[in-house]
Specification:
CATH superfamily of the largest domain: Tetratricopeptide repeat domain
Radius of gyration: 22 Å
Helix content: 55-70%
Number of helices: 15
Low-confidence stretches: 1-11, 189-221
Strand order of the largest sheet: 4-3-2-1-5
Distance between the termini: 81 Å
Shape: globular
Structural class: alpha+beta
Number of strands: 5
């Protein structure tokens, strides 16, 4: 009898959750997904939650199609994973399972360059979670090429949901859609490479740590094209010609960067445009500032966990100040305080800016 009971208990805990760090919860029992974007499961007699964004692979007992999708996703086979998730989604009736699949399929569709389909999952999750931060941070980044039919379809989809969010007075949802619409207007293509190594803060201070030169660098040790562009912009006497050279390099290679390098490329491109704006006037200056602001917001919204995100949000505020948009600038600085409170230098910079804005008539 004891043996039978043990066998039954083991069969009831046949799921598995493997983390990106290598940690693996075997003989677990997955029970759902919460509104914070975390998977919930029992393991070793205790209840656990883990952010889905940090989960590498999930195995669910008896869910063959889902497991095939997870295996393909872990191997970087995004298109194959997306198809398997589609099948699994159609086979399940459990609401929590459908929500779990949406989270995982979103990543697969984005990686496969299926922008419209990825946005459908993201929008559905935003509505289901009342615009939870964990979902906002998972907005698709592999956006369609400027001028393409897919760009028009994506824009129409976002605008439709923006109107719906406005009617329901979900200001957070509206703001998230606005940021994506700006990114869509800037166009792609972007090719995520989930195996690209994450850049580290050379001072070991975590995201956005010590600034080597607060005006032009995050202190990150870039390589290749990014290193050249960063060197040009990091000069204490960087000229408009230096900025023009950096911008040319980045524009020529923007579609070639892997997912792990895009945040750095976009930040540097925005800084190059910001520097060129200082040397321009009139409509040309405004155009450069607006394009710089778009690059900074794409970093802050689409890559919130990147080293560059806190600095990018600060720079977005400064660009809005230069454009004469104090309200938008204030929102950006306040976002630094609420989202990147651990980055002392950027928090201090944002507070100083808010104090300056408050003192202005």
């Amino acid at each position: 009898m004891t043996i039978l009971l043990l066998a039954a208990a083991s069969a009831a805990l046949a799921d598995e959750v493997a983390m990106e760090t290598g940690l693996k919860y075997g003989a677990a029992k997955v029970s759902g997904v919460n509104k914070k974007g975390e998977i919930e499961f029992a393991w070793s007699g205790r209840r656990f939650t883990q952010p889905l964004a940090k989960v590498k692979q999930i195995v669910l007992d008896g869910e063959e199609q889902f497991n095939q999708a997870e295996k393909a996703l872990a191997a970087g086979q995004h298109a194959q994973a997306a198809r398997a998730y589609d099948t699994a989604f159609g086979l399940t009736r459990a609401p929590w399972m459908k929500e779990l699949i949406r989270y995982r399929r979103l990543k697969a569709r984005d990686g496969a360059g299926q922008a419209y389909a990825a946005l459908e999952d993201w929008l559905a999750l935003m509505e289901a979670t009342r615009s939870a931060e964990a979902v906002r941070e998972r907005a698709p980044s592999n956006l369609p090429k400027a001028g393409s039919t897919e760009q028009k379809r994506v824009r129409a989809l976002l605008e439709s949901h923006r109107a719906k969010a406005q009617r329901s007075r979900d200001e957070v949802f509206v703001a998230a859609i606005d940021a994506l619409l700006k990114a869509v207007e800037a166009g792609g293509p972007q090719t995520p490479d989930e195996k690209s190594p994450a850049r580290k803060d050379p001072k070991g201070n975590g995201p956005g740590g010590l600034m080597v030169n607060q005006e032009v660098t995050t202190g990150v040790d870039y390589g290749g094209v990014l290193k050249t562009a960063s060197s040009l912009l990091s000069k204490s006497n960087a000229s408009a010609q230096d900025a023009k050279r950096a911008l040319g390099l980045l524009d020529a290679n923007i579609g070639k960067f892997g997912h792990g390098d895009l945040s750095g490329a976009l930040l540097l491109r925005g800084q190059a445009r910001q520097r060129l704006a200082r040397a321009a006037a009139g409509d040309e200056q405004r155009m450069m500032l607006e394009r710089a602001g778009l690059d900074f917001m794409r970093v802050a919204v689409l890559y919130p966990e990147s080293v560059e995100a806190p600095f990018a949000m600060c720079l977005a505020g400064e660009v809005n100040e230069a454009l004469g948009n104090p309200s938008a600038a204030r929102n950006a600085y306040e976002a630094v305080l609420s989202r990147f409170e651990g980055n002392e230098k950027m928090v201090a910079r944002a507070r100083a800016a808010l104090k300056r804005l408050s003192a202005e008539p």
